[in-house]
C-alpha cells in the first residue's frame, strides 16, 4: 500500500535541501533568497547558530519533561523574556501553534469576564482550529463546510471606529485584533482604530486580545506591533518567530488575569517542553542583543522606499503597504504569476496575502544587496505581468 501525504498547501515546485541565514537551497543546488521564511517563522534566519546550540543542549540533556516537572530551562526562558515582554505582562505559557494560542486567549476571555461574545474583524486571520476559525474572516474558503462554528462571535469592519462603538458592548468578553493583518493582505490598523478599541474595551469591561503571531517579535520594527500604537493589550498571542524556527507559541497575560486561571484550566501535552523553552530563551536573547527590531525598522524602511520608487507609476500596482519587514505590494490582479516569476526567474521566495497582494516576510539579517534584489525582482516580475496582460488584451 502506498502512503500519500495529504497536502493542504499546493506544492511550490521545488524540493528544499537545506537552509541557512536568509537563504534556502533546493535539491538541484539552486540558492533562493527567502522572503517567505515559512510564513514568517524564520525571521531570525534559518538555523541561527545560537538557537541550534540551545536546542542541541536540550537534546543532549532532556527532550521530554512536562511543565509540571520543569527544570532550569524554565527560569532561563523567563529571564530571557523579561526585556522582551511589554510592561505588565508578567505571566506566559507556551503552546505549539498560533491557532492554539488563540484558542487559549478566547477561553481565558470567557473565563475571566463570565461573558461569551467575541468580536473580530473583516479581513482577520487567527488560525484554522474551530475557535480560531470562528474569528477568522480573511477568506470564506477557510470556513466553507465547517459551520456551525463556535457561537456568539460578532464581526465588525476593520479600521472602522463607528463599528467599534456599535459592536463592542457589555455583552462582549473580548475583541481580537491583528495590528497588521497578515493573511488578510498586509493591512495595518489605523492609530485611531487601535486607540478606539482600547478605549471601548475599557468602557465595557472586556479584554483586548492582540494577536501578534505574525507581527510580533520584532518583525514590524517594534518588538510587538501594538507598541507602534501606544496601546496596552490584555492578552498577547505570539508564535512563528518566537522559537527561531522551533514550533512553539505563547500567550502572555498580566497578573490580575493569571490569578483567575487555576491549574487544570487548560493544558497541552507538548506545551512548554524543554526544547521549546530553550529555543524561546535563545531567540529572545538574539532579539535583544542583535537589536533585531531596530534592524527590521531600518531595513524595512529601505525596502519599502525602494519598492515605492521602483513601482511608481506602474499601472497594475495599487500601493506598497506594511511596516518593518512585513510588507505587501497590492496589485490590481492576482499575484500568482509574480510569485512564480520571483521563484523561477529571480530565485526569491515570497508569498501571497489576501487575493491581490505579494507579501514579503524576509528575515532581519538581509543585506542591502538582498534588499535591492527583492525590490528589483518584484519590479521586473510585476512589469512582466503587466505586459503579458497588455498582450493578452491586444490578442
Ligand atoms: C495573526 C495570526 N494568528 C494566528 C495564526 C495561526 O498560526 P498557526 O498556523 O501557527 O496555527 C496565524 C498564521 O498565519 C496568524 O498569522
Automatic annotation (TrEMBL):
Class of the enzyme per the UniProt entry, highest EC level: transferase
Keyword Transferase appears in the UniProt entry: yes
This protein's UniProt keywords: Amino-acid biosynthesis, Aminotransferase, Arginine biosynthesis, Cytoplasm, Lysine biosynthesis, Pyridoxal phosphate, Transferase
Family annotation (InterPro entries): Aminotrans_3 (IPR005814), Aminotrans_3_PPA_site (IPR049704), Class-III_PLP-dep_AT (IPR050103), LysJ (IPR037537), PyrdxlP-dep_Trfase (IPR015424), PyrdxlP-dep_Trfase_major (IPR015421), PyrdxlP-dep_Trfase_small (IPR015422)
Sites where the protein binds pyridoxal 5'-phosphate: 98-99, 125, 211-214, 269
EC id: 2.6.1.118, 2.6.1.124
Localisation: Cytoplasm
Pathway: Amino-acid biosynthesis; L-lysine biosynthesis via AAA pathway; L-lysine from L-alpha-aminoadipate (Thermus route): step 4/5; Amino-acid biosynthesis; L-arginine biosynthesis
Presence of keyword Amino-acid biosynthesis: yes
Binding positions for substrate per the UniProt entry: 128, 268
UniProt GO BP: L-arginine biosynthetic process via ornithine; lysine biosynthetic process via aminoadipic acid
GO cellular component, one term: cytoplasm
Catalytic activity: [amino-group carrier protein]-C-terminal-gamma-(L-lysyl)-L-glutamate + 2-oxoglutarate = [amino-group carrier protein]-C-terminal-N-(1-carboxy-5-oxopentan-1-yl)-L-glutamine + L-glutamate; [amino-group carrier protein]-C-terminal-gamma-(L-ornithyl)-L-glutamate + 2-oxoglutarate = [amino-group carrier protein]-C-terminal-gamma-(L-glutamyl-5-semialdehyde)-L-glutamate + L-glutamate
Pfam families cross-referenced by the UniProt entry: Aminotran_3
GO molecular function: identical protein binding; pyridoxal phosphate binding; transaminase activity
Main subcellular location of this protein, as a coarse class: cytoplasm
PROSITE patterns referenced in this protein's UniProt entry, alphabetically: AA_TRANSFER_CLASS_3
Cofactor binding summary note: Binds 1 pyridoxal phosphate per subunit.
PANTHER family membership: ACETYLORNITHINE AMINOTRANSFERASE, MITOCHONDRIAL, AMINOTRANSFERASE CLASS III
Family, as annotated: Belongs to the class-III pyridoxal-phosphate-dependent aminotransferase family. LysJ subfamily.
Subunit record text: Homodimer.
Name listed for the protein in its UniProt record: Putative [LysW]-aminoadipate semialdehyde/glutamate semialdehyde transaminase
Species of the source: Pyrodictium delaneyi
Amino acid at each position: 500500500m502506498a502512503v500519500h501525504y495529504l497536502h493542504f498547501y499546493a506544492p511550490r515546485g521545488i524540493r528544499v535541501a537545506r537552509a541557512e541565514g536568509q537563504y534556502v537551497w533546493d535539491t538541484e543546488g539552486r540558492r533562493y533568497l527567502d522572503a517567505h521564511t515559512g510564513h514568517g517563522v524564520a525571521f531570525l534566519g534559518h538555523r541561527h547558530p545560537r538557537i541550534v546550540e540551545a536546542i542541541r543542549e536540550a537534546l543532549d540533556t532532556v527532550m521530554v519533561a512536562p511543565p509540571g516537572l520543569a527544570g532550569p530551562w524554565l527560569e532561563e526562558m523567563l529571564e530571557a523574556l523579561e526585556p522582551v515582554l511589554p510592561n505588565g505582562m508578567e505571566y506566559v505559557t507556551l503552546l505549539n501553534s498560533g491557532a492554539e494560542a488563540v484558542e487559549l486567549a478566547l477561553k481565558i476571555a470567557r473565563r475571566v469576564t463570565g461573558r461569551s461574545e467575541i468580536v473580530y474583524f473583516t479581513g482577520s486571520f487567527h488560525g484554522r482550529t474551530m475557535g480560531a476559525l470562528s474569528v477568522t474572516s480573511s477568506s470564506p474558503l477557510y470556513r466553507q463546510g465547517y459551520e456551525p462554528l463556535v457561537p456568539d462571535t460578532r464581526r465588525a469592519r476593520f479600521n472602522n471606529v463607528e463599528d467599534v462603538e456599535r459592536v463592542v458592548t457589555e455583552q462582549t468578553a473580548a475583541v481580537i485584533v491583528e495590528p497588521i493583518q497578515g493573511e488578510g493582505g498586509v493591512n495595518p490598523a489605523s492609530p485611531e482604530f487601535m486607540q478606539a478599541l482600547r478605549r471601548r474595551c475599557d468602557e465595557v469591561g472586556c479584554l483586548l486580545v492582540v494577536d501578534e503571531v505574525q507581527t510580533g517579535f520584532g518583525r514590524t520594527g517594534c518588538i510587538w506591533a501594538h507598541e507602534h500604537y501606544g496601546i496596552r493589550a490584555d492578552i498577547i498571542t505570539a508564535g512563528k518567530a518566537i522559537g527561531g524556527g522551533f514550533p512553539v507559541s505563547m500567550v502572555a497575560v498580566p497578573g490580575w488575569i493569571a490569578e483567575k486561571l487555576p491549574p487544570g484550566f487548560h493544558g497541552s501535552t507538548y506545551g512548554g517542553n524543554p526544547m521549546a523553552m530553550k529555543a524561546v530563551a535563545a531567540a529572545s536573547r538574539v532579539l535583544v542583543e542583535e537589536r533585531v527590531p531596530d534592524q527590521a525598522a531600518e531595513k524595512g524602511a529601505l525596502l519599502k522606499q525602494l519598492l515605492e520608487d521602483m513601482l511608481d507609476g506602474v499601472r497594475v500596482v495599487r500601493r506598497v503597504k506594511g511596516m518593518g519587514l512585513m510588507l505587501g505590494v497590492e496589485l490590481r490582479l492576482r499575484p500568482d504569476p509574480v510569485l512564480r516569476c520571483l521563484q523561477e526567474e529571480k530565485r526569491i521566495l515570497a508569498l501571497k496575502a489576501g487575493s491581490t497582494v505579494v507579501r514579503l516576510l524576509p528575515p532581519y539579517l538581509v543585506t542591502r544587496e538582498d534588499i535591492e534584489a527583492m525590490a528589483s525582482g518584484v519590479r521586473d516580475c510585476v512589469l512582466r505581468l503587466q505586459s503579458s496582460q497588455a498582450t493578452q488584451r491586444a490578442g
